[in-house]
Amino acid sequence: MVDEPSIQRAIRAAQAKAAATLSPGRYRHVARVVEMARQLARSHGMDPLPVELAAWLHDLARERDGATLLAQARQAGWEPDAAERADPILLHGPVAAWEAAREGLADDPQVLEAVRWHTTAHPGLGPVGCLLFLADKLEPGRTYPGVEDLRRLAFEDLDAAMAAVLDDLIRYCLDRRLWLPAVTVAARNAWLPRSRPGPAGPVDP
After folding, report:
1. Distance CA 170, CA 125 (A)
2. Which residue, among 181, 47, 120, has the nearest Cα to 97 in the 3D structure?
3. How far apart are CA 195 and CA 30, in angstroms?
4. Angle of CA points 160, 163, 168, to nearest 5°
5. CA distance 133 to 139
6. CA dihedral sign of residues 80, 11, 50, 139
7. Helix 158-175 vs helix 182-191: crossing angle, to nearest 10
């Protein structure tokens, strides 16, 4: 059970930290993610407070340079893989989660998990993490082709939306020849059978 006064204090502290740390444009993005995360939580009958806290925290390290992120990730005990070494911005979630815990901004495992994996997702991501992942990718400032359909799906079926957004994220990386994190592929494969009826598995070409 969520201790509401305690989590509301944490939300105020996280919002203040975001306001003091982030550029105006990044702060506006975070505020939009917060609002969409709240709406998604309520739409699916979930407590909005944990994901609201995660949303205020998720991009606290987003505007740091690659060398800083690599150094801070290693300080946190996170050994960057090949994709993270090539594209260190992938580390801003793990670094933000580590700092949030270290600074006492959050101690709820589901909140820290959501912050840690909001960029790439993860096969075992819990409900708060799913809400934040979707809100970050689908907030109203996003204007890429197909986003309106994905937004509608997110309010109807979280599992189907996770599979569809992961597919879209993978296509984005492939189209631009970006590093594709293995954990994102694993997450997509984990959500695929949850998002459609019947058995899922390899099929003959």
Report:
1. 17
2. 120
3. 28
4. 125
5. 10
6. negative
7. 140
Which one-letter amino acid corresponds to residue 83?
A: A
Amino acid at 186: A
Kindly report the length of the chain.
Answer: 205
Which of left, alpha, beta for 104 (phi over 0: left; psi -120 to 50: alpha)?
left
Please tell me the predicted confidence (pLDDT) of residue 194.
85
- Amino acid 3: pLDDT: 61
Tokens read off for 138: 């689908």
Amino acid in the structure at residue 184: T
Which residues of the chain fall short of a pLDDT of 50? 1, 198-205
Q: Hey, what are 175's tokens? A: 């189209």
Tell me, what's the pLDDT at 2?
Answer: 59
Q: What is the dihedral of CA 94, 100, 103, 106, to 10 degrees?
A: -140
Query: How far is Cα 103 from Cα 201, in angstroms, rounded to an integer?
Result: 44
Report the C-alpha gap between 68 and 88 in whole angstroms. Answer: 9
Do residues 183 and 116 make contact, with C-beta atoms less than 8 angstroms apart?
no
